[in-house]
């Protein structure tokens, strides 16, 4: 049986370095360093190693189930150990067309406990889902916690996107009189996702990152912060909603299983559509007269106002009667409708099946709320186009324009 053995956990101030050995058959799935790190914005020397290892384990467990291997380690938090089997069952339900094996063997289980001093810690990005959850639990004074997992080395390397994330989230936290903390890690890199996809995911209509890893990695880091600050519950905002059967690892059946040192997890807002969340944000903005500073554009220093996610978010705000989009963190020059038409003409290929459901929900809401819209021209335009046809046309134009580059990429891939 293939195996992963966690060999060393080194703690230095705010940094945790974990090293592991792999059996030969697993080496192709990992970077050669066999190293996982987390670098927090707070000291972690007083956090037990049985807790500090949880972020790594929440990345490795789904992998071990997929490849049917054993994870060996010295010690593990008892509450976390007890949640592994329910978590594995939840993964089986989510991925009913896949087989899961594997196991975890720890030399020692540690019962960690403490007195709760804070009610909530929330995984926070500044996006629509996360900001809605913050508003919903604002009376609990949640600690806002942001993760960034795209680092190869534990270092002081400069990263403009990360710096922009920190600045924006600190600004939001300050406006709400909340605390905010951050972690940098290599959790999105230390496993070679393309190799996992090729062997296990591509023929199952899923991916390692989307179907198995991302929210597990986020919650794992959040558990360390929750222990540090004696928090009772970790909140993660839902990405999808009840009634949408999307095979995404951030699912209430999975997230709500995760427990550690008495800390529980809540997958929040699953009963709300994305549009219902935006409605809450607009209502909160109107009642509090406070700018929302939404941050929806991944891997950018600001909302680009050009990508699908930015347009989806701006349209959702317009559907709820929002007028000045700069009050929500979207800054652009020119007329919004002209920008939208350009996006539909050139980039509608971004409207895949996972995203077009949101657009249809938005258009329906615009139509129902037509009398209250500040941008009725936008609604009129969207009601008279076929998004599926626009996507097909955009893909066709892409192939016509960039066929040489496409062929070149396919040749080099082979």
Question: What can you tell me about this protein's structure?
Answer:
With 414 residues, the protein is α/β, with parallel strands linked by helices. 44% of the residues lie in helices and 17% in strands.
Strand content: 15-25%
Distance between the termini: 31 Å
Radius of gyration, in angstroms, nearest whole number: 22 Å
Low-confidence stretches: 154-158
Taken in chain order, the helices and strands follow as EEEHHEHEEHEHEHHEHEHHHHHH
Secondary-structure topology with pairs:
Layout: E1 3-12, E2 15-22, E3 35-40, H1 49-52, H2 54-67, E4 70-77, H3 78-94, E5 103-110, E6 118-123, H4 128-136, E7 143-148, H5 160-175, E8 180-185, H6 193-201, H7 208-228, E9 231-237, H8 252-255, E10 264-268, H9 274-288, H10 308-319, H11 336-347, H12 353-368, H13 376-382, H14 387-413
Produce a short descriptive summary.
The chain is of the alpha/beta class. It has helices spanning 49-52, 54-67, 78-94, 128-136, 160-175, 193-201, 208-228, 252-255, 274-288, 308-319, 336-347, 353-368, 376-382, 387-413; strands spanning 3-12, 15-22, 35-40, 70-77, 103-110, 118-123, 143-148, 180-185, 231-237, 264-268.
Core attributes:
alpha/beta; single chain; 14 helices; 414 residues; 10-stranded mixed sheet
């Amino acid at each position: 049986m293939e195996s992963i053995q966690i060999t060393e956990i080194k703690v230095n101030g705010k940094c945790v370095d974990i090293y592991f050995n792999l059996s030969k058959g697993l080496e192709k799935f990992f970077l050669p360093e066999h190293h996982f790190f987390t670098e927090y914005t707070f000291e972690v020397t007083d956090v037990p190693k049985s807790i500090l290892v949880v972020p790594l384990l929440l990345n490795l467990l789904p992998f071990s189930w997929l490849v049917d291997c054993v994870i060996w380690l010295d010690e593990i938090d008892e509450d976390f150990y007890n949640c592994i089997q329910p978590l594995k069952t939840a993964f089986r339900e989510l991925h009913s067309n896949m087989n899961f094996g594997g196991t975890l063997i720890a030399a020692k289980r540690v019962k960690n406990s403490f007195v709760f001093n804070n009610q909530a810690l929330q995984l926070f990005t500044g996006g629509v889902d996360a900001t809605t959850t913050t508003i919903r639990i604002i009376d609990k004074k949640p600690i806002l916690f942001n993760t960034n997992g795209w680092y190869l080395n534990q270092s002081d390397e400069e990263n403009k996107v990360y710096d922009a994330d920190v600045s924006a989230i600190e600004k939001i936290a300050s406006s709400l009189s909340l605390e905010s903390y951050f972690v940098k890690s290599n959790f999105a890199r230390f496993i070679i996702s393309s190799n996992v996809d090729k062997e296990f995911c591509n023929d199952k209509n899923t991916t390692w990152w989307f179907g198995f890893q991302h929210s597990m990695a986020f919650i794992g880091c959040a558990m360390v912060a929750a222990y540090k600050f004696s928090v009772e519950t970790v909140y993660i905002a839902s990405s999808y909603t009840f009634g949408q059967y999307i095979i995404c690892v951030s699912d209430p059946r999975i997230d709500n299983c995760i427990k550690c040192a008495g800390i529980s997890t809540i997958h929040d807002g699953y009963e709300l559509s994305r549009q219902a969340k935006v409605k809450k944000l607009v209502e909160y903005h109107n009642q509090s007269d406070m700018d929302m500073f939404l941050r929806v554009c991944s891997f950018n220093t600001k909302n680009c106002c050009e990508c699908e996610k930015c347009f989806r978010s701006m349209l959702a705000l317009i559907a709820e009667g929002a007028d000045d989009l700069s009050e929500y963190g979207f800054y652009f020059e020119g007329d919004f409708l002209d920008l939208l038409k350009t996006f539909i003409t050139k980039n509608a290929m971004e409207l895949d099946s996972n995203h077009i459901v949101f657009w249809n929900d938005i258009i329906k809401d615009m139509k129902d709320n037509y009398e209250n819209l500040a941008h009725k021209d936008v609604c009129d335009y969207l009601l008279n186009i076929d998004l599926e046809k626009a996507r097909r046309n955009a893909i066709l134009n892409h192939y016509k324009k960039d066929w040489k580059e496409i062929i070149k990429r396919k040749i080099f891939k082979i």
